[in-house]
Amino acid sequence: MGLTQILNAVLIFFLESETDTPWYLFVPQILFLVGMWGVFRKSGLKPWHALIPCLQEIRLGQAAGMEKEGRIAAMIRAAIILLDECILFFGTGTNNIPMLIVFASIFLELLKLIFMAKIYLALCDAYDRKKAWVLLWILPLDFIPACMWGWMKKYQPLWTAAEMKNDASSFFSGAKAAILDQGLTVNLEERTVTEFLKKKYLLRDIHMYIQPGHMVLLLGGSGAGKTTFLNAVNGYEKAKAEVVLNGRNMYREYKDMQYDIGFVPQQDLMRGSDSVYRTLMDAATLRLPAAFTREEKEKRVQEVMEIFGLAPVRNNLVEKLSGGQRKRLSIAMEFISNPTLFILDEPDSGLDGVMARELFLQLRQIADQGKIIIVITHTPDRVIDLFDDVIVLAKDSNRTGRLAWFGPISEARTFFGKEKMEEIVKSVNRQEEGGDGRADEFIMKYAEVQHG
Question: Which H or E element spans position 3?
Fold first, then answer.
């Protein structure tokens, strides 16, 4: 450890403490930093990160396999530093300090202790040491385990911070779907958000080509990223991806192509006080080219009402429609522009088996016209005979949505060794969610199939 780093460490603690504190009281803190330098080095992290307040907690969380807890502890420490500055501002006398700040400071210190205890317990596992070590870590004796684990050869982590990520979660298939003049190609590298100052992966490494005329089932447990995937495909929430429909890039030509994709969300977005005809005419005004005359719009509305069996209730108010009729109307609104790709998020929600079957039969007829249909449903087995392919998304060990299967229904049954689609979902769900916890296994297995 260089002299500059030691001086920086001393300055850090002097800045956070009163300057009249005897110098020898800083020795344990400096020894702690020296020890953490060694711990970070052994864990494959940059050692000097141990000297930076807040960053130290983040990296320690990574070394222990507790990234989220480390980021939270870092945010708590930042708040504590801010409160300490407030206390200095009001003065050292207790009577001068607002009690709210005092209580907030005590609360944050206790909260930080809880999160750091979790991290240190996980660090004990990483170093294959007894849990009792955590007592030294959370007491003012933390410099003892820090120096011992950081610099004694007998104390070695079982894995580095990078190795703690499961092979399946860090694995990339390297596959890329072919881009053809017809059909839908999705090459999605990643879809991310920022959470606790860190990039979080929602989806990763998803590649597929769907042929025209295919009706595709989208499966996955809660949180697997089904809706996020659909939003990335239709351009509503862009990802780091290439989405090509009939040879045209969706992201580059979104304005021109947005009405070539019909998206039916779970919730019906219709005014109950409008009639069926008025609702569809409004949709025609929004979705059809401006060059269409009123007569042409009315003709298209009539065609769509006939297709979806809405002609008999043409003048009925939306609020008076049955559940099945409302669903058909919401689909008809998107179908008004004759889209090439149809995406539906739980269109059978709230419908009984007979009504749901009728709805999916209509979707099958639409697919048979050369359209591509992608559907999420939580009761797939009652209509599975109407689908051509199935997409299975699963959360890997880092809780990122990955592709565990795409292909024909019959081959999916063989691949997972399951007959029912609901059993397939159970097999990739995490054990704490009532599943079999085999997501990583099937993600890796499918990657081998792609390279096959």
Answer: helix 3-15
pLDDT in tens, 264-279: 887 777 888 889 999 9
In sequence order, what DSSP letters do the residues of 369-411 get, joined into one string?
TT-EEEEE-S-GGGTGGG-SEEEEEEE-TTS-EEEEEEEEHHH
In 258-391, which residue ranges form alpha helices assigned H by DSSP? 276-287, 294-307, 323-335, 353-367
Instruction: Please classify residue 146 by burial: count the beta carbons closer than 10 Å to its beta carbon, then call 0-12 exposed, 13-18 middle and 19+ buried.
Output: buried
- The Cα–Cα gap between 265 and 119 comes to 41
Report pLDDT digits (tens) over 113-148: 999 999 998 888 888 888 899 999 988 888 999 999
The 10 Å Cβ neighbour count of residue 171 is 17
Residue linked to tokens 């429909």: 245
Class of 168-451 per CATH? alpha beta
Query: Distance between CA 406 and CA 445 in Å, rounded?
Result: 12
Which parts of the chain have pLDDT scores under 70? 1-24, 88-97, 161-174, 195-198, 451-452
How many other C-beta atoms lie within 10 A of the C-beta of residue 424? 25
The CA-atom distances, in angstroms, between 392 and each of 79, 214, 304, 364, 415 are 42, 16, 32, 20, 11
Domain with CATH 3.40.50.300 in the chain: 168-451
* Strand order across the 198-210 sheet: 248-249, 240-245, 184-195, 198-210, 401-408, 389-395, 215-219, 372-376, 341-345, 261-264
What is the token pair recorded at 19?
């300057």
Q: What is the pTM of this model?
A: 0.66
Residue 87: phi and psi, rounded to 5, are -65, -40
